Amino acid sequence: MKVNPRSCLCPVLLCLCFLERGYEASHHGQAKIISRSHNATHNHNQTKDGETEIHHRPKRGWIWNQFFVLEEHIGPDAQYVGKLHSNSDKGDGSVRYILSGEGAGSIFIINEVTGDIHATKSLDREKKSHYVLHAQAINLNTNKPLEPESEFIIKVQDINDNAPKFPEGPFVTSVPEMSEVGTSVFQVTATDADDPTYGNSARVVYSILHGQPYFSVDPKSGIIRTALADMDREAREHYSVVIQAKDMAGQVGGLSGSTTVNITLTDVNDNPPKFPQKNYQVFVPESAQVGKPVGKMKASDEDIGINAEIKYSILNPEGAGMFSISTDKDTREGVITLRKPLNYEKKKHYSLHIAAENTHLDPHLTYLGSFKDDATLKITVGDVDEPPIFSMDYYIMEVYENTRVGTEVGAVTARDPDSKNSPVRYFIEQREDKAVYFDIESISGVIRTTQLLDREDTPWHNITVMATEEDNPSLQSHVPVTVQVLDVNDNPPMINTEDEIIICESTRAGQVIQTITAVDKDDFANGKGFSFSFPGGIPANPNFTIKDNEEGVTFILAVVLLLPPPP
């Protein structure tokens, strides 16, 4: 089969010409057919030899490849983009090429005769990556289009003109101290405005500029990790790490940007409490009040926050029995408080074994050892001049009434509790509104009567005895003394009625006509056994008699009428 050479003419040809042929060769593989497709019609002609000739007559239409233009062109001349050409153009100037669309006439210009396209301005792919234009070939003789208008794209080809950037930063983050090597700390991400689909202009690799050997960064992900084991916050707390992001996959000539990541080591409980010294001393006067603080101790802890919270305790029973210890939340001191009264004369020294331990332990750090420390506190009890102490908390004494003045009632005793054992003097507190019935010997403490006592008038007397030290009268003690006045039989019975007795004439013999009672002011023991009788033992009237009934404490007199015999 023969093909007529004339049938191989294409209506329009697009010539892609680039300033740099090497650049063209590397991109022909990227060219795309972006216009509509073309359908060819076939004509069959017979040759002289009888063979049939096939004429391929394509349906007219534009066939366009994608144009490319380098961004950031800074040469003195306009940048050549490509050429529009129609095979109908015989070179006689009868064809006019027209360019329209985005940037036509301002950015892109065309030589209407040759069809050459140039870019007159420097383009920035990051601002606009492509332009959509329309091409048309016009027959100047007929002023009619040779082909329908067709659309094509000029793509701005990327160059590495943008350095990687970190949108935010500097960054602040933290990681626990004593973290294992490789612990993830933070992730940084840089952006590159260049074309990620072409070359390595936007392929970023991370590296660490400052912060080694403590930290490392993954070159692909930008994840920062710990690189040194057992980093100690107490030795160094803050680190400033500088991370670089470099494009072109980190190759020489790539552009770079950097950011700073400020890393703080957060505290973990990796330090036990420590007493600055092993032995302490404190002086406490024996007059110290129970429940009040008498001393303080403090263990130091290099940790902070809850990791530095300390609980104190007294280990030995003797110390724990007399003292207690608690933690001051503000100062973290151990406050020693008195639990029982001190007595210099009985015990002058105490030794307290005190422990300090953390309250919040990290189970992952138990391999570091015990988080506890101990120390000894020696307490010296100071002697204080104390007031005398009575042998009893109160006294009860007895004395008979009507005893002579100066009778001894009883005695009180008190002593000086201090080691000097100062002599004690006694006094009775006097009240102006009350009579003085008792006195006390200042040296012996013997109490005596100063007046006759009447039980029936005052059966009980309450007095207060005061004891002072001879060497220091300002130190005083007081004790209550109660004196009971005992009864003697010093009061006669009293008949409590003097009423006249009225009887009826019809009263029968032996009938009780009156009950008479008698009372005695003395105590029951001395008032029992009343006997009733008429004065002189003979009744004034023989018609009456009395009968003693003895009911209880009161004695009843029955008067019985004796009637005369019948006449």
UniProtKB/TrEMBL annotation:
Topology relative to the membrane: Single-pass type I membrane protein
Region (Disordered): 34-54
GO MF, one example: cadherin binding
Primary location: membrane
Listed transmembrane segments: none
Cell location: Cell membrane
Name of the protein in its database record: Cadherin-12
Leader sequence residues: 1-25
SMART domains attached to this UniProt entry: CA (SM00112)
Domain Cadherin residue range list: 86-166, 167-275, 276-390, 391-495, 495-553
Keyword line: Calcium, Cell adhesion, Cell membrane, Glycoprotein, Membrane, Metal-binding, Repeat, Signal, Transmembrane, Transmembrane helix
GO cellular component, one term: adherens junction
InterPro entries per UniProt: Cadherin, Cadherin-like_dom, Cadherin-like_sf, Cadherin_CS
Matching SUPFAM superfamilies: Cadherin-like
PROSITE patterns given in the database record: CADHERIN_1, CADHERIN_2
UniProt record, GO biological process: adherens junction organization; calcium-dependent cell-cell adhesion via plasma membrane cell adhesion molecules; cell migration; cell morphogenesis; cell-cell adhesion mediated by cadherin; cell-cell junction assembly; homophilic cell adhesion via plasma membrane adhesion molecules
